[in-house]
Amino acid sequence: MKRIFFIILSAMLLTSCVLEKAQPPAPVTPVEPIEKKEPSVEPSEKILQPPKIQSTNWNGIVQPLVEQMVKANGLEAGRLLLIDSVKNNTNGVLQNLKATDAVIGAVSSKQVFNVVPKSQVYTARKALGLSSEDSLGLRSKSIGLARYLNADYVLYSEVSGNNSQRVIEMQLMLVQTGEILWSGRGDVN
């Protein structure tokens, strides 16, 4: 029975195969390339210029504030100070790194505090999982970072307002208690 079934199945398979005759290849006719013309581009709209970043004289802004800070009562000279990055609480773009560098430079030039080096701050931020571009920095984060670095003081700075009228506010805090020892503010032009 199996042989008969196999023979019938083989016969059906073989009858379904159709032999194809060899067809001659299709004729090939050469075509000359068509010259492409570049489409003329006419500006449909005027291209807008990106907004210009305002150049700010951060040294001139933070210098008077640092002068006031170093004259504040109750400060012990030679102590370790963490200068946290300047926070941007404006509705625009702020050059945080330039502002922070200006604050570090102004404080360092007074030689009242020992400033925590930037490399140590960077390493500590990385260890604690804090981004250096964190615009939502809180005072508690700054104090926590200062405690991690064994700093005595922390200088917290933030710029607020809108692009036409910005204000920088700086606060010097005692790390051990979180007490604000000095506070100052100035216009950012």
Automatic annotation (TrEMBL):
Signal peptide bounds: 1-22
Protein topology in the membrane: Lipid-anchor
Subcellular location(s) per record: Cell outer membrane
GO molecular function: enzyme regulator activity
Subunit relationships: Interacts with PBP1b.
Main location: membrane
Key words, A-Z: Cell outer membrane, Cell shape, Lipoprotein, Membrane, Palmitate, Peptidoglycan synthesis, Signal
GO cellular component entries: periplasmic side of cell outer membrane
Family label: Belongs to the LpoB family.
Cell cycle keyword on record: no
Xref: InterPro entries: LpoB
Region (Disordered): 24-46
Gene from which this protein is expressed: lpoB
Name of the molecule in the record: Penicillin-binding protein activator LpoB
Organism: Xenorhabdus hominickii
NCBIfam families given in the database record: lp
UniProt-listed GO biological process terms: peptidoglycan biosynthetic process; regulation of cell shape
Function: Regulator of peptidoglycan synthesis that is essential for the function of penicillin-binding protein 1B (PBP1b).
Compositionally biased tracts (Basic and acidic residues): 33-45
